[in-house]
Predict the structure.
Amino acid sequence: MTASFHSTTFVGMALDPIHVGTGGTRLGRVDNTIVRDPVTRIPKIPGSSLAGVMRAYTAMRTEDEKPGREINGKKKPYFPDCAGQGGGVSGHCGQADCPVCTVFGFAKGTGAIGGFAGLAAFSDMHVLLFPVASQLGPQWITCPMALRHTGIAEFSELDNPPEQEAVYRKADGAAPASLNLGWLFLPVSKDWDKLNGIAEKIGTLGFPGYITSRMGVVSDKLFSHIVNSNLEVRTSVAINPATGAAEDKALFTYEALPRGTVLVWEVTCRNPKHFKIDTEDVTAVDSPEKVKEIITQAHSYLEHLGIGGMGSRGMGRLRVLESKGGK
């Protein structure tokens, strides 16, 4: 019997800084801030942002493989039509054999009846490991809350490390007496025996060895401060298109997750046999595993075209390292 759904945890590493903005400027240290979790205040990438770019990249890939499609005698490309907002002449095709519209859903347009929610659901992308500069070079820091949230460690087997200490692991087993993480200078604890097991689990997700050998854990309370104090902040200025010079009074700053940040997210794929589109069976995919396959085939586009804003300023590229699990 085929399962009703299949959930997979994906892990990715930022190849460039990533900026997913809040949609406007605000008073504060930075003009254009990035999205944060409202409870922990830790930056995240909303699932809607991920679903949007994955839809566009899936449409690009499908169009490259199957160009020249026609519906009712009219040319109907997968990209940009099925990657768009729906409605109108160039909107979603809404066909049961379209891998884009069935996997990501579609709308009929303003005032129209119908639509389809889609077979894939994307969670928010959360920070699992955060790179921080130290006197020993870059360190990748996490906390029990991040490990529990991603399923790497269960609630019952993981307690908080010392509140004002960093639990540090190095490949040769040695640990410094103290470690600076940005502006914080913390004593190092070596007696948290769970760290080696956690590092092994993280290593199975495809992380390079230089990350797992430079991994540290801090308390949940301290993690938010470390992340928000070590975000990348850039300054830019608008350019006058007529003169090619800087626009007067157009200086602005924006923040981003730094290169090397490790993010984790979950994709739940529904069984297409349980759904119909206008009384028609879904034919583009026939199982939750095929839905996942459609999504993963577009991961290479994330590595080259990126996610979020400021793409023309060297931001956004994300490499998907590995996936795990399945329910």
Summary: Residues 47-65 form the longest helix (19 residues). The chain has a mean pLDDT of 87. Residues 130 and 271 are 35 Å apart (CA to CA).
